[in-house]
Design goal:
Elements (H helix, E strand, L loop, with lengths): L2 E4 L3 E7 L2 E3 L6 E4 L1 H20 L9 E7 L4 H13 L25 E6 L3 H11 L3
Helix pairs in contact: 2-3
Length: 133
């Protein structure tokens, strides 16, 4: 539920603590303006600058999938796994449409890197998972 997606030829992932840790049983708490929103805005600004200058990446645009870690290491790890799921083929085989044709699926996301997370402990956990893929 806490995500931003921008289309592009290549996708950069982002993991930022946009929300603080929530109370027991709730993953996310209040918005973190300085340490969360500012980092998110910095990534969006950098993408805007790169995509706006045709000399930097000619004929390519950078997209993004930015996820909220809610300042919680286990939640960040779950979010990182969603990056991995986007690279895997859909479950349940191909299936068929009512008219008998094969369904049209969007091409797999071309995730080329992940920026974040904010805390070293979270970054280490996420890097260990993403390194496998």
């Amino acid at each position: 539920p806490h995500a931003i997606r921008l289309e592009g030829d290549l996708t950069l992932g982002g993991l930022f603590p946009v929300h603080a840790r929530g109370p027991a049983g709730v993953p996310c708490g209040p918005v973190k303006k300085e340490k969360g929103i500012h980092r998110l805005e910095a990534m969006l600004y950098a993408l805007d600058r790169v995509n706006g200058d045709p000399r930097v990446l000619p004929n390519l645009t950078l997209g993004a999938r930015i996820l909220d870690t809610c300042s919680r290491d286990t939640y960040a790890l779950e979010q990182a796994l969603s990056f991995v799921r986007s690279l895997l083929p859909p479950e349940g085989g191909e299936g068929r449409c009512p008219d008998g044709s094969a369904p049209r699926r969007p091409p797999p996301e071309r995730l080329v890197g992940v920026i974040g997370a904010s805390a070293s402990s979270v970054s280490i956990m996420v890097a260990n998972v993403l390194r496998l893929f």
